[in-house]
Every structure is written in structure tokens, then in C-alpha cells.
Amino acid sequence: VQGTRNRFFTYWMTFRLQGELLAGKEFILYCTDSRISHMELWIDGEPMTDAPIGTNYAFSNRSVNSRYLAYYLPQKSDMTIDIKVFSSQSSFFAFEVKEKDTFIGDATWETTMLGGAYGVFALSALFSLLMRLKFRDSVYWTYASFIIVAFLTCLYLDGSGFQYYWASTPIVNLYLLLLLPLFILLTCALLVTSFVDAWSWSNRYFQIMFWSTAVSVPVGYIFTFVAPQYFLHNFCYLVPFIAMIYVCICSYRKGFGSMLPFIAGFLLVIVTNSLYMLQPFLSVESYNSVIRLSPHFSVVGLIVTLSYAQYIKFYSIFKSRSNAKRKAY
What pTM does this model have? Predict the structure, then answer.
């Protein structure tokens, strides 16, 4: 069953499951998007839970302890399933039925991938701390802020944060929906500004990044609440990255070699998030774990490229200091 990104609409879906293999085995019906606000399910007219599940309700309401919105199906060879879905944010409705062991195996594989992503966050934070102690440069505080925001973004997107950290406070999901795009853009723009030394308001690069963010974010918020079904708000958030790519290209041509990883990282963000936003045009079979986790890949790739950019910059500083000391002797 596949739906759209329409927001503030209630959807009813009915379908029938038949098959001899259904009898005697445990199957799970789940929604592949964890950001659904409200979901209820009936089997042959009987409600499956006492309370609805979703991001509007405490995580303890869920009968299946998973970041997905999931239900155990009865062991019957013929059943009629009715689903009621409502979302107060831009979401994608795609439902799948899997045998319990298959569901657990796929969930374990995705969790392993997520663990690798969060491991990159930890290594990047350690790298930032070591560089800060070595060079005493304030850019590392900006980089640390970016890592924190990226970490929260991934926790929000994959539902792990709601599952493990703010399970009893669903309102946090709404705050993160509104604030995370702004913080991601601000921290990235500050990093670029720090690397090209464009802190002056009269600097053309500073003005390009400032105005692209100042205009795109409010417009994105408007589309979030007015017309989220067209997912234009997500494209608005990509505009500042295009502006930052332009600044990085211009700076690289002027001799800032550390800008090349920035360009690669921002291009990765645009490509992977564009793929993620094309979900409504994909079939359920095409909507796999790689697409579901594409925002994570973009964030991890951006962290790796920005870490490498810092290494390039401060390796050149370290080399310059070493050469100066040799000349002094």
C-alpha cells in the first residue's frame, strides 16, 4: 500500500490478505516512515490496540518495540485490514507485510548501518576535540556544533531519538521538525565563513550565504504549513547549499584548497536528499533501506568531507609553523 506526502489529511486504507502461508506464522505489518503522527489498525473490524500510535503519542503505546509503526498480525490465512493514518508533518505512507524473522533481520541490518553512522559522529567529535586542543582555533567549536545538530537530525529522521531519548515527550518531534533545518544551514554556513575568513558584512560571500539562508528558511517554513504535499519546503532548504557551493568554488579558485571537500560534501547532500524527496514517485518495491537512510548517508558524508577539509587546512598551518621554526634555527 502506498500513499503520498499530503499533510493534515486523514487517510483510510483497506486491503485483504490471503494465503495459506499466513496461517501458523507470525507476520508484522509496518509503515516504513516513522514520522506518522497518528495511526490505527483494525483486523476484520476488531481494533488491534487500545490506543493509537505515532509521533503524537508516547512511545509506550506501541505494541511492537520498534522505531517503525508496526503491528503483529493474527495467524490467519484470510483477513481484512483497515488502516487509519493522519500526519501533521510531511510524511510518506508505504506499508509492508513481513514475516517476523525477516522483519527482525532487516531491522537489525538497518540498525547496524545506523550504528556505523553514529560511530562516525563519535569519531568526528573526538577529532574535533583533539584539533581544538592542538591548534586552539575557534572553528572547532563551530564544527562541534554542526556534529551535535547532525546527530539530532539523524535521531529525528530515523525515529531512534523518539524510541530511546524522548519517548514520553512527543512534542519534541515537532520542535525538531521546525528547528533542525535552520540549525543545519547555520552551522554549515558558519563553517564556510570561518574557512574563507568572510566574517565582514561587506564581504560578498558572507552576503550570498546570509541572504540565501534568510530567504529560503522562512519560505520553507511557509511551504511546510501551507503546501507540504508538494515537498517544496525541502527544496527550499537545498538552496543555501547551492549558494555555499558557489562560494566554495570561488574560494577554491582563489587558492583555498580546503574548499574542495566542502564542494563534494554539499553536492552529496543535494543528490541524496533529492533522491529522498522523490519517494512519492517510487514504487513500494523501490523504497528500500538505502533510500530510507539516504539523509543519513548525506550527513555522514558531509561530516567526513568537512573533517578532511579541517585536516587539509590545519596540516598546512602545521607545515607553515614547522618551516618557520626551521628558518629561525
Answer: 0.77
